[in-house]
Amino acid sequence: MNLKSLLSLSLIGLLLLSACQPTPAPTPSATATSPATAESAPLYLDATQPLEARVEDLLARMTLAEKIGQMTQVEKNSITPEAVRDYAIGSVLSGGGGSPTPNTPAAWAEMVQAYKAAALETRLGIPLIYGVDAVHGHNNVKGATIFPHAIGLGATRNPDLVRRIGEVTALEVAATSVDWDFAPVVAVPQDIRWGRTYEAYSEDTALVSELAAAYLTGLQGADLADPRTVLATPKHFVGDGGTAWGSSTTENYKLDQGVTEVDEATLRAVHLPPYQAAIAAGAQSIMVSYSSWGGMKMHAQRYLLTDVLKGELGFTGFLVSDWGAVDQIDPDYKTAVATAINAGLDMIMVPYNYQRFITTLTQAVEEGLVPQARIDDAVRRILRVKFKLGLFEHPMGAPELLPLVGADEHRALAREAVAESLVLLKNEAAVLPLSKSVSAIHVGGAAADNIGLQCGGWTISWQGQVGDSTPGTTLLEGIQATVSSGTAVRFNRFGKFETNAEVGIAVVGERPYAEGVGDAEDLSLDPADLQLIQRMRKTSDKLIVLLITGRPLILGEVLDLADAVVVAWLPGSEGQGVADGLFGDAPFRGKLPFTWPASMEQIPRGQGKGEPLFPFGYGLTTP
Ligand code: BGC
Ligand code: BGC
Question: What domains lie within the chain, and their CATH numbers?
Answer without folding.
Answer: 3-23+30-403 (3.20.20.300), 422-602 (3.40.50.1700)
